[in-house]
## 1
Amino acid sequence: MAKRYYETTRHYESVFVLKPTLTEEEVQRRLQEIRETIQKKGGQILQEEDWGIKKLAYPIKNFQHGRYFIFRITSSNPELPNHLDFYYKISDDIIRWLNFQVKVKEGKNA
C-alpha cells in the first residue's frame, strides 16, 4: 500500500447505549475509559452529549431501556472506528453502538 504524504482529518460520530442499571459512578468511569481510548488512538473529542435514558424499540440483552450518548470526534487515524468497535464489543456495559463518518462541508466547523 502506498504511503500517504498528506494528513486527512476525518469527522466521526459515535453513538452508544449503556445499560440502564449502571450507577452514575459506573457511567462516569465507563465514559472516562471511552475518552481515554479515543485519545490513545489519535482522536479528539469535539462534543459529548448525554441523551438520557430512553425506551428501546425492542429488547436488547433483556433490557427495555438504555442510556444514550453521542461523541463527535475528529481524527487523522482512519482505523479509529475499528478500534472503537472492538472496545464496544468487549465491553459488557455497552449494549448497542454505531460509529459513522460525517461529511463536513468546507468552511463549516463540526
Note: The CA atoms of residues 11 and 103 lie 7 Å apart.
## 2
Amino acid sequence: MPSTLVEFMKLRKNMFGPIYDVRHTQLHHFHTVCGLQRFSDSLGIKRICGAAHQAGSDSLLTSLHIKDSKAYL
C-alpha cells in the first residue's frame, strides 16, 4: 500500500487509467441535475438494451455517455 495520497493516485492511474465521473460532468459542464437516463436522453444517447438500474445496461449507457460527451468538453 502506498504511504501517501500522491503515491496512491499515481499507482491508481497506472493501473486503471483515467476515471470519468458522469455526475461531475453533468453538474459542472452541463449545469443540470437529473438521472442517467434523462441526462442521456438530453444528449440524444439511446439505451441499446436492458432496463434502467440493471448493471449491464446502465454500464453500457454510461460508457456511451462518456464517449459522446467528450465531444462537448
Note: The mean pLDDT is 86.
